[in-house]
Design a protein that fits this description.
The protein is of the alpha+beta class. It contains 14 helices and twelve strands.
């Protein structure tokens, strides 16, 4: 490789940097295999960070939207917590009294900060229509119809039942969009209206079809059927614990409403003063976000660990390659010094070469990281959030690795005696 030597003394800084960059890229082109091996560790580390950060950002958005579908103004009261973390917690929760319709009525009557109060009970069933069937369908018995607003679902076609229809316990339902696909052969939503589906052998008249909510982590949120709670009680019995949903007008009133509901529930079910269990679970959707945050924080830690190891290995490889380069180019360094290059010029030259290698590796890693994230997001089905900040961070960190790993070889090159360097073979 022929190199044009330019004395840096008296040169403009940008001219010197550009000349150093040209020499660096020329050296990389002349040693393609060595360059590829040098880049590997940097590329792997940056790819891992970019891919995981991009994927988790997309998951963050999906999970936040899903968990907040009821909004930040809704909380629940139930017998069992939504997430049970241990066997002891499960046993303690099962010893509690059931949450009843009377509890919901007391909250509705006494809680002045509460705006909407509704109840819901769930069952999992196989639903049939003719010779078609849908499995693992969530049957949701709700009262009153304002539970549709609390749940954050809306009607696409048809209607919901009236209060009188619900109070009468009629066998009527509103179905999720998955029923169209699984029972009606992807027919238009209007095709299901007026038809009868069978739930646990019992016929239900379809009044309406819900707007689609989509899936999360491969689980459909549209595989659901709503029925009146009075109908649910007839089909499954009334002696089941309920979940009471409470909504407040604004998020600022949430804490006040929680305090009132907690007082009401404690009054209705007194417990020993030394018992730390309240006898019920009062929760917001933050319980899911906190669990998810704890899980993804561990993923971040593992990814950062893997990336750090890859970057350290890449930095060691870059240092070794640069030391070899200094040895191979000893005579070149002597000529540079002989025609006026200062120690600072030689140091800058080799630092720029090291940073160029690692910056290129970082840029390739950013591209492959986004590509990997795109493939995974397409397979799982969640939005891809490309962050410019993470791309800049990836290239920036790799450049810092280049500076750190290239500092010692550059210093060795800068300290070479020009006379001894010119004598080198």
């Amino acid at each position: 490789m022929s190199v044009r030597f330019v004395p840096f003394r008296g040169s403009l800084p940008l001219t010197a940097i550009w000349e150093a960059f040209r020499v660096a890229t020329g050296s990389l082109r002349a040693n393609k295999l060595r360059t590829a091996l040098t880049l590997m560790g940097i590329i792997v580390g940056v790819t891992a960070v970019i891919a995981v950060v991009t994927i988790i950002k997309g998951l963050d958005q999906t999970v936040a939207q899903t968990c907040s579908s009821q909004g930040s103004t809704v909380f629940t009261v139930s017998k069992n917590p939504q997430i049970i973390k241990s066997r002891e917690e499960f046993i303690k929760a099962n010893r509690r009294k059931d949450v009843t319709h009377e509890d919901a009525e007391a909250i509705q009557r006494l809680c002045t900060a509460c705006w909407r109060v509704g109840i819901a009970a769930n069952a999992i069933e196989t639903v049939k229509y003719g010779d078609q069937k849908a499995e693992n369908v969530r049957i949701r018995g709700v009262d009153p119809t304002t539970m549709f607003d609390i749940d954050g679902v809306s009607i696409n076609v048809g209607r919901i039942w009236t209060e009188s229809e619900g109070a009468a316990g009629r066998d009527i339902c509103v179905v999720g969009p998955d029923m169209l696909k699984n029972l009606f052969g992807d027919a238009p939503a209007g095709r299901a209206l007026g038809q009868e589906v069978r739930i646990n052998g019992r016929p239900y008249l379809v009044l309406g079809v819900l707007e689609p909510l989509g899936s999360i982590f491969g689980f459909s949120r549209d595989n659901v059927i709503y029925i009146p709670y009075s109908t649910y009680s007839k089909a499954y019995g009334a002696r089941r614990s309920l979940v009471v949903f409470i909504q407040v007008p604004a998020a600022e009133q949430l804490e006040s409403a929680e305090d009132q509901v907690r007082t009401i529930m404690r009054t209705r079910r007194p417990h020993p003063s030394d018992d730390t269990d309240e006898g019920f679970a009062l929760e917001t959707q933050d319980v899911f976000l906190n669990l998810y945050g704890a899980a993804t924080s561990n993923i971040y830690i593992v990814t950062i660990g893997v990336a750090a190891i890859s970057l350290v290995v890449g930095g060691i490889v870059v240092m070794n390659i640069m030391l070899v380069s200094v040895t191979e180019r000893t005579k070149e360094i002597g000529i540079r010094k002989a025609i006026g290059a200062r120690r600072k010029d030689i140091l800058t030259q080799f630092l720029i070469e090291a940073v160029t290698v690692t910056a290129i590796g970082g840029a390739i890693g950013v591209g492959t990281g986004f590509g990997l994230a795109y493939i995974i997001s397409a397979l799982i089905g969640f939005p891809l959030l490309v962050s410019v900040a993470s791309a800049v961070l990836g290239v920036g960190v790799s450049s810092v690795v280049g500076i750190v790993s290239g500092l010692w070889p550059a210093w060795r090159a800068a300290k070479l005696d020009p006379i001894e360097a010119l004598r080198a073979e």
